[in-house]
Each structure stands twice: as structure tokens, then as C-alpha cells.
TrEMBL record:
<keyword id="KW-0547">Nucleotide-binding</keyword>
<feature type="region of interest" description="Disordered">
    <location>
        <begin position="691"/>
        <end position="722"/>
    </location>
</feature>
<dbReference type="InterPro" id="IPR044774">
    <property type="entry name" value="Suv3_DEXQc"/>
</dbReference>
<keyword id="KW-0496">Mitochondrion</keyword>
<dbReference type="Pfam" id="PF12513">
    <property type="entry name" value="SUV3_C"/>
</dbReference>
<feature type="domain" description="Helicase C-terminal">
    <location>
        <begin position="269"/>
        <end position="434"/>
    </location>
</feature>
<dbReference type="InterPro" id="IPR027417">
    <property type="entry name" value="P-loop_NTPase"/>
</dbReference>
<dbReference type="Pfam" id="PF00271">
    <property type="entry name" value="Helicase_C"/>
</dbReference>
<dbReference type="GO" id="GO:0016787">
    <property type="term" value="F:hydrolase activity"/>
</dbReference>
<comment type="similarity">
    <text>Belongs to the helicase family.</text>
</comment>
<dbReference type="InterPro" id="IPR050699">
    <property type="entry name" value="RNA-DNA_Helicase"/>
</dbReference>
<keyword id="KW-0347">Helicase</keyword>
<dbReference type="InterPro" id="IPR041453">
    <property type="entry name" value="Suv3_N"/>
</dbReference>
<dbReference type="InterPro" id="IPR022192">
    <property type="entry name" value="SUV3_C"/>
</dbReference>
<dbReference type="Pfam" id="PF18147">
    <property type="entry name" value="Suv3_C_1"/>
</dbReference>
<dbReference type="GO" id="GO:0045025">
    <property type="term" value="C:mitochondrial degradosome"/>
</dbReference>
<dbReference type="GO" id="GO:0003724">
    <property type="term" value="F:RNA helicase activity"/>
</dbReference>
Length: 722
């Protein structure tokens, strides 16, 4: 007891905490090291003689005028123990230097060796800002276009070659050369992660610069802006990023010329909501923020004898383009579009009116937590701006909401100024992680990343991007013997970790790669059960989309490990065939929804739950911003574990309610359905409320039963009265 009391006294001393910090132990590490040190002393059958003597002196001298020992004397032993559990303490100075991210401009000496001209084309959607930058790109002797999506890179690649300016296409999964002999063309259109910072160009175009603040991908825009070796850098995006870009360029000694653009066609926010799908008109686009809503709305449109195109994020690019083409074709009977915010960029659509089905959207915050919150002004403007595109058959655009209650809030959101972009994303490079691994050879890649982020220093203009996806993959393949560089590449693979089939495939790829066995076309066909048939229900369509992602993953790895993934050409061919199969499924999506609902096929509930925010069976904590009106917000933390049987039952009930729902009856029907539809209540919260209600109901009945027992027992009743 005396030893424990003195150890706790040691822990609380400010001088000891200061000494710990000087030796690399921040508050978190200091606490963890102390817990381990205390456990070692209290639970070990014996300790070293010198530590035993110190502890004896401290305990025996406690309370005496002439102290034999002082708790501070424990520090050398504590530090020795801390270095055993945190090996990086021995090389902390080196690690701090490696993870110092305060001067990113210095990482690109080639760009710093030239004086670049920075031109910022600022304006809203449909203002012609990118058009003017692309005109300069086409007139240059050499150039590079960097965009956020494969679709955008492909569009510029097409435009450039159509204008007789030879241009190559470079994405993570694809290389297309303008020259038949595969010689590199002077112009390149690429996804932003693929841009080269070593090749000199006359002109570079960086599109959608506001994405420099993106928690996951912002680092790619930072790298392009600071590192591209081009005489002219044309930056396109929202005016909200002007100040940050100007400040970043100030640190490189480069000036920014700003060119402002206004929208080319008028955009009107209507004074009335749609309220019923009976009020749809040709050229309408209903924007939903979950696949479930896409399914529900498209089914209800079909029930009214109308045909609709469908676009959402997980569809292959080819299918998105086909659906866009179908909607844009004046001779096609399809005049309505149902889409997610995937239409915000990358597709040219002839939309007359944007209708927000909801104005709340599930998002991931900077801590990696899921949230439901109202869409931001930036998101609302990006989506609403798709209406009335310049050069289309609609000379002006309109925007409204599905529900009357949402319209006032949408107007408030659109009238607010876009929040300025405050910081640019950064991400540790493979070289930095390799240097960390040299100092910490026994640490896992996931631990190396954690230590890097905890020690990294950034100034106010930057932040370290979210690395949860990277760590997830690092932990998943940790048991597979790979060298560090290969392991890093596998962990940066672009995949959705919510897709179990794709994650399992990556694991199999890594395992076979580690055995030095090439991943052949035949192996991939066996694993994916190719050839595949057209989908009969939604579950099968979702699986086909996952198989398409697996083919993408193979192609992505084939450009990094050509010898181990040798059949890229064959895989690209079957991926195109799969794209056609998925297109057939999407064209018949309402039939697939009907088949899923009427057959109640096994796993259908899982398909619905996969997309509905926060409907998981694992114990998990989520932050939900619950909006009621424009100004009122309430943060709720929910941690619940829902039995699979009850979860399935509730999902079936939800589907049943969705089938019977008619948007004309907005404002009537059950309160739960209305709150779900408006995004004010999630399925998880509904289940929690149901569970609490059942518990209270059960307790009430038990209390009533015991009361009856008391009434039937005279002795007990007498005691109660006394």
C-alpha cells in the first residue's frame, strides 16, 4: 500500500511530467508508460536490486525530517522501462525531424528552381472557369490536366484529341496513349493523384482546388499545387480557396493572379416544393443521399408510368455515362433523373430543375466518425448549379426540395457565404515511412503511421489527412510477409472498405503476391466466378458492382507490379463486358427492386442496411447531428448492439413502409416514417427507442405483477403500510 501511494505521488508531480516531456513522453505516452511501470512493480514477484533499494528508502523515509529517498529518484527506472515499451524514445530527435511537415514547399526542389505563374480561375458551377483554363492548356506546347475524377480526365483527354492536340490519359487503373507507338504525348489528362512532379510542362491545370481541404484526398491537391513543374499553373475552383492558395504561394515566393467568373445562366430557387412525384416535369433531377432513397424514388416514379435514369457513386464510369446519355437524348422517353451527389462533378447533364429529396447527408468527420448533418453551402451550390447548364436545351436552372419543410432551410443554406478553405491536406510519403521503419524495425506499418502522425508537426496552413483507410488495410494484411514498400503500395489501394468481397480479394492478392505467384487471368476468373449473368435482384447488382471494383483493383496493381499482375489487357476486356451487364441491370432497376422485395430473397435486408446510414450490427459509437430547423442542432452519441433477427425484422418493416409510402401524403402517416424520411431520425435511433420502450413496458408489467402479489399477500401489505 505504501509503494502504491508513492508511485501515484510520483505520477502526479509536475517536475516528473516535465522531465518525461523532455525525453519524448507526451501526456498520452507518459500515462501509458506509468500504467505499465506501476503494473511491473506491483505485480512482479521480484524487481532489480537497485530499484528495490530505492523503493525501500522512499517508503522508510516517508514522513521523516531527513528523507532517505525521494519519489523523484524513481525517474531513471521509469524512463528505462518507458524505453523498453516505446523503443522510439531512443531516437526521438531523428523521428521528429523525419515527421516535421512544416515546410512542404521544400519537398519539391524542381518546382522551386523555376518561377511559376499562378492564375486562379474562381467562380461557381457553370461559370466557364474551367473552359478558359482548358483553352490555355490546348494552346500550349505541353500541358497537364489534373482532375478529381476519371470521368473528368477522360473528358479532357477526348476534347484534346478531338481538337487535334495529342493527349494521353493516365489514371490509377488505365494508360491510354494518343500515339500508336506508345510514345508519350506532350499533353496529359490525369487523375490528380497520378500527376508527375518531375516532368516539366508549359501549362498545368488543377481542377476543383477547393478539394485541397478534403479529409482523405486533400494531400493530392497540395502536392500538385506545390510540386508541379509548369511555367503556368491554372487553378480552377470556388472563390473560398483564394486566400489559402495565395498564402501557400506566398511561402513559395509566387504571386497569384485571380480571375473571377459569374454564372453564365440564371439559377432560381423556387418558392414551392415538389411535394408529390405527380408534379414531375421533363428535365427534373431528384437528388438523394442514400442508395435506399434512389431505389425507393425510382420505384415510385415507375409506378406513375414514367421512365427514369439512375446515377450513383458506386456505378462504373461507363454505366454513369450511358445513363447520362439516355437522360440527355431528346428522342429517348427517359426524361427524369434520380441521382446522388455523384452528379456534382464529372458529368454533363441537361437538367432543368434540381429537386433535393433531403437536405441531410451522412458524412465522415475529421476523426473518422460518421455524422448526419445538413449539406454545406458548398455542396448545395455544387449540386444546384447543375441545373440550366450553359449550352444545353434549358437556358435557366431551377432548384427546390421534395418536402415543404426543407425549402426554407435550403434557401438559408444557399444564401450563406461559402466557408473559406482554411488548410491544405498532407500525407506521409513512402520515403518518410521507410526512414521511420529504419529506426523502428519491429513496429508494424499501422504503428509506424500512428507514431508518425502523433509526432508530426504542421503549421496552421496544413493538416494531416485522415489515415483510417490506410491503417485498416495495414492491419488486414499485417500477417502476410511483404517488404515495406510493397506493403505500403497495397495499403494505398483505392477501395471501399465497406465492401467485404473487395477487401477479401485484396487479402488474397497480397497472400499470393507474397508467395511470388503471379495473379493470372484464369485465377481472377475462378475467384470472381466469371462469366457472370445479368442481375435478377438488387443484391446481385450490388455484387456485380463489387466485382467491377475488384477488376479496377487488379488493374491498379498491374501498373505497380506488372510481373505479378500480368493480364491487364484481358481483365480490361472483361471489365468492359461487365460494365455492359451492369448497364442492363441499372436500366431495369425497378424490376430488380420489385424482385428483391417480393421474393424477400436471403440477404436482401443486408443490401438495404448496407446503404442506410448507421445500420450496423457491430457495437460502434457514432456521432449524429440531429437537425430540427435551420439553427437547432443536438449531438447524440449512440452505442447499441442490435440482434440480427430484430434488425432484419425492422428492415423488412421499413421496406414495407417505403413501398406503401406516397409522397403526396407528406405531413400525414406515422410520425416515425415522416422523421425517417426527413432525416431527423435514423434506423439505429428508432431501434434504440423501440428497445427502451420495450424495457420500460416490461418493467411496468413486472411492477404491476409484484403489486398484485403484494395485494394477494396480507402480511406483505401490512409491512408496506407500516
Amino acid at each position: 500500500g505504501e509503494v502504491l501511494k508513492n508511485l501515484n505521488k510520483f505520477y502526479k508531480r509536475k517536475e516528473i511530467q516535465r522531465l518525461g516531456a523532455e525525453n519524448g513522453l507526451d501526456a498520452r505516452l507518459f500515462h501509458q508508460a506509468f500504467i505499465s511501470f506501476r503494473k511491473y512493480i506491483m505485480e512482479s514477484s521480484s524487481v532489480s536490486a537497485d530499484l528495490h533499494i530505492i523503493l525501500n528508502d522512499i517508503c522508510c523515509g516517508a514522513g521523516k525530517v531527513c528523507l532517505l529517498g525521494h519519489v523523484d529518484d524513481l525517474f531513471p527506472f521509469f524512463l528505462r522501462h518507458a524505453k523498453q515499451i516505446f523503443p522510439m524514445l531512443d531516437c526521438m530527435d531523428d523521428l521528429r525531424k523525419i515527421s516535421d511537415l512544416r515546410l512542404p514547399p521544400n519537398w519539391y526542389p524542381d518546382a522551386r528552381a523555376i518561377q511559376r505563374k499562378i492564375i486562379f480561375h474562381a467562380g461557381p458551377t457553370n461559370s466557364g472557369k474551367t473552359y478558359h483554363a482548358i483553352q490555355r492548356f490546348l494552346s500550349a506546347k505541353s500541358g497537364i490536366y489534373c482532375g478529381p475524377l476519371k470521368l473528368l480526365a477522360h473528358e479532357i483527354f477526348q476534347k484534346s484529341n478531338d481538337a487535334n492536340v495529342p493527349c494521353d490519359l493516365v489514371t490509377g487503373e488505365e494508360r491510354v496513349y494518343a500515339n500508336e507507338d506508345a510514345r508519350q504525348a506532350p499533353h496529359i489528362a490525369c487523375t490528380i493523384e497520378m500527376c508527375s512532379t518531375n516532368t516539366p510542362y508549359e501549362v498545368a491545370v488543377i481542377d476543383e482546388i477547393q478539394m485541397i481541404r478534403d479529409p482523405a484526398r486533400g494531400w493530392a491537391w497540395t502536392r500538385a499545387l506545390l510540386g508541379l513543374c509548369a511555367e503556368e499553373i491554372h487553378v480552377c475552383g470556388e472563390a473560398a480557396a483564394i486566400d489559402l492558395v495565395t498564402e501557400l504561394m506566398y511561402t513559395t515566393g509566387e504571386e497569384v493572379e485571380v480571375r473571377n467568373y459569374k454564372r453564365l445562366t440564371p439559377l432560381t430557387v423556387l418558392d414551392y416544393a415538389l411535394e408529390s412525384l405527380d408534379n414531375l416535369r421533363p428535365g427534373d433531377c431528384i437528388v438523394c443521399f442514400s442508395k435506399n432513397d434512389i431505389y425507393s424514388v425510382s420505384r415510385q416514379i415507375e409506378a406513375r408510368g414514367l421512365e427514369c435514369a439512375v446515377i450513383y457513386g458506386s456505378l462504373p464510369p461507363g454505366t454513369k455515362l450511358e445513363q447520362a446519355k439516355k437522360f440527355n437524348d431528346p428522342d429517348d422517353p427517359c426524361k427524369i433523373l434520380v441521382a446522388t451527389d455523384a452528379i456534382g462533378m464529372g458529368l454533363n447533364l441537361c437538367i432543368k430543375r434540381i429537386i433535393f429529396n433531403s437536405i441531410v447527408k451522412p458524412t465522415i468527420n475529421e476523426k473518422g466518425e460518421k455524422e448526419i448533418d445538413s449539406i454545406t453551402t458548398s455542396q448545395a451550390l455544387q449540386i444546384a448549379g447543375r441545373a440550366g447548364r450553359y449550352g444545353s436545351s434549358f437556358k435557366q436552372g431551377e432548384v427546390t426540395t421534395m418536402h415543404r419543410d426543407d425549402l426554407m432551410q435550403l434557401k438559408e443554406i444557399l444564401s450563406e457565404p461559402v466557408r473559406p478553405v482554411k488548410a491544405a491536406g498532407l500525407h506521409p510519403t513512402p520515403e518518410q515511412i521507410e526512414m521511420f521503419a529504419y529506426h523502428l524495425p519491429d513496429a508494424t506499418l499501422s504503428n509506424l503511421i500512428d507514431i508518425f502522425v502523433s509526432l508530426s508537426q504542421v503549421d496552421g496552413l496544413y493538416f494531416v489527412c485522415n489515415i483510417d483507410d490506410f491503417k485498416f488495410l495495414a492491419d488486414m494484411i499485417q500477417h502476410i510477409p511483404l517488404n515495406l514498400r510493397s506493403r505500403y503500395v497495397f495499403c494505398t489501394a483505392p477501395l471501399n472498405r465497406k465492401e467485404p468481397f473487395v477487401c477479401t480479394t485484396l487479402l488474397k492478392f497480397a497472400r499470393q503476391f507474397s508467395r511470388n505467384e503471379p495473379l493470372t487471368f484464369d485465377w481472377l476468373c475462378r475467384h470472381t466466378k466469371w462469366p457472370l449473368a445479368a442481375p435478377k435482384n438488387i443484391k446481385e447488382l450490388v455484387h456485380l458492382e463489387a466485382v467491377h471494383d475488384v477488376f479496377d483493383l487488379y488493374l491498379w496493381l498491374s501498373y505497380r507490379f506488372m510481373d505479378m499482375f500480368p493480364d491487364a489487357v484481358l481483365v480490361r476486356d472483361i471489365q468492359k463486358q461487365l460494365d455492359d451487364i451492369i448497364q442492363v441491370g441499372v436500366c431495369n432497376i425497378t424490376k430488380l427492386i420489385r424482385a428483391s422485395q417480393s421474393a424477400s430473397a436471403p440477404g436482401t435486408a443486408e443490401v438495404v442496411s448496407e446503404d442506410f446510414p448507421f445500420s450496423r450490427t457491430k457495437r460502434d459509437t457514432r456521432v449524429v447531428s440531429h437537425h430540427h430547423g435551420a439553427k437547432s442542432t443536438e449531438a447524440l452519441s449512440i452505442a447499441v448492439e442490435v440482434p440480427t433477427e430484430r434488425r432484419t425484422r425492422n428492415l423488412k418493416a421499413y421496406r414495407s413502409a417505403t413501398r406503401q409510402e406516397d409522397l403526396k401524403s407528406h405531413g400525414r402517416g406515422s410520425l416515425a416514417n415522416r422523421l425517417l424520411r426527413e432525416g431527423l431520425l435514423t434506423q439505429e435511433m428508432l431501434r434504440q427507442l423501440e428497445s427502451e420502450w420495450q424495457d420500460q413496458h416490461r418493467n411496468g408489467r413486472e411492477g404491476l405483477g409484484s403489486k398484485r402479489d403484494d395485494q394477494n399477500n396480507p402480511k406483505e401489505t401490512g409491512k408496506k403500510k407500516k
